[in-house]
Amino acid sequence: xxxxxxxxxxxxxxxxxxxxxxxxxxxxxxxxxxxxxxxxxxxxxxxxxxxxxxxxxxxxxxxxxxxxxxxxxxxxxxxxxxxxxxxxxxxxxxxxxxxxxxxxxxxxxxxxxxxxxxxxxxxxxxxxxxxxxxxxxxxxxxxxxxxxxx
Length: 150
Fold this sequence. Notes:
By secondary structure, this protein is mainly alpha-helical. The chain has one domain. It contains 8 helices and no strands.
């Protein structure tokens, strides 16, 4: 019985090894690096335009507006199917900036919209991003308590 299971596992592993697409590490790393850099440069350009158009806006407010614009653009590009192509090409370079977080919330919302607003969009929207949000909130509470005590 053990030998039969072992043979099936080995056959399955060979099958998976044949079917999994081979990736080239250096081109993937390079694409990830430059696409992530371009996304960050776009964010800097948006911030510079906001500071140019609204000269009385303080730095923190301009960055908040910049993040709102980047989140909207990533959600819009996800909705029309462009951001998924960018993600497939760039890998981690498209995930690391805040645009990747926006994509991780928008994608499940679009995928499960046929189940309705409550059980589809509202519930499934945070399946990927929920643990990230909970961890961020818990970490910020912990840091806030440490800052308060010390």
